[in-house]
Specification:
506 residues; mainly alpha; 3-stranded antiparallel β-sheet; 38% helix; disordered N terminus
Length: 506
Amino acid sequence: MKHFKILAVLCLTLLFSCTKLDESFRSELEANNSQNITADQLLISAYNGLNGLTHQGDVWSASEISSDEAIAPTRGPDWDDNGLWRALHEQSWNADHSFLSNAYNGLLSTQFAASNVLQFNPSAQQAAEAKFIRALSMFYVVDGWDQVPYREDLTNYKILPTTLKGNEVSDFIIGELTGIMSSLPATGPAYTANQNAAKVLLMKIYLNYGVYANRASPAFDAGDMAKVISLADEIVASNNYSLAANYFDNFAPDNDAKSTENIFTLYNQNGVRGGNVAASTFSVSHYNMNPGGWNGFSTLSDFYDKFEATDTRRGVYYAYSAGLPNPGKRQNVGFLIGQQYNLTTDEALKDRKGNPLVFTREVALRETGNNLEVTGIRPIKYPYDYPNRDQQSNNDWVIFRLSDVMLMKAEAQLRSSDAVGALVTVNLLRAKRGVTPLLSVDINTLYDERGRELWWEGWRRNDQVRFGTFLSAWSDKSATTSTQLIFPIPSGQLAVNPNLTQNPGY
């Protein structure tokens, strides 16, 4: 299926990502014969560092549970975790929130691993891939925390890293990606950094350039919007991508072969390596479902109601080679609501008390009583890889897709007063997803369309900040202040790096 060109010498795990390289490991390398370490080996570690984007309690949780798209209820004694999940949803975190610290530290570790590749005589393409990984990790850091510690020279740790902030980071990333573009491959598997992936990341930077300058009141420069539109047109003109015939092909266990629209993904292969993609299913599934899960995350009914009944993105019966027989052709992907069934026997499932397993629209941040196992609509984005149950799944985790490119272009068109062009772009996507065409489009409808298309993919917080909705009140969350537009710098990082300063309000 997948043929990955980099030897996985340093990363021999089967279920989760390999241990991230950090400065102590770098010191060990220097103490040993560095000629035994190659850029190939280090590059695989840099790629693996990105797997933190998929992990529960890491970047994904910071981006989704803090938004209007997801909630992680405390269900009796389950999912309490000292209030960490509730703090994310309520946006009441502080500088000691361990999930936010894990996310920040993991991204910096990935940045280090990518920079480390450059110290070991990489080829031009290897260096370009490493710089792309570094730029992507820096993007996530500036988007969440605004401050990015950066060092190019990894030989003298007595010199503290420089701290880049806001558009200093944006300008650095733009320069990096522009400089490496010709050294990245134009085609190839989506799990390898490529020219179109770099162009999508540039689009993200230009679209958010005004946000990182002033998150409370961003301005959108016409020149930046023109660059977003131009980059989108270049990606489409490459003829490497088309909208998938089936939306869930993009997330299937064989999505590396099946998807026609994935631009950059994270490699997952059973028996080789990958991230914890299966947790995206376990975290929402009830204990008695197949696979049995942890009965946790849900979406909010207000978000679910944004979908038309015919919208395939809301959920369907999805037939795929790694699925169960599903004789009743029950819905097995998308938003699960109502009575649930055994996908092998088609028998109606029950909860652990023997009551019908019927997922409800209602859900609260603190659940008690007899129905705490069934509250909440459960989203399953990645079709479960049943042949590799309880092992490393084969679903590649999706970072960039063609549909996101189209919607970013439409947004830039709208912000450039081209509503007609934006409408054409959005309706091309909607036609593929089985929903009625829009008669008009404005910023609010475009925002909703991004939610419908990109749900559970880790973009909701980024969108909400840019569209000015992140501080609003929603279910079990009161209106918050501008402080929450940026996460706090972890206390542990402040203690070891005096070039970092705590973000305002914390």
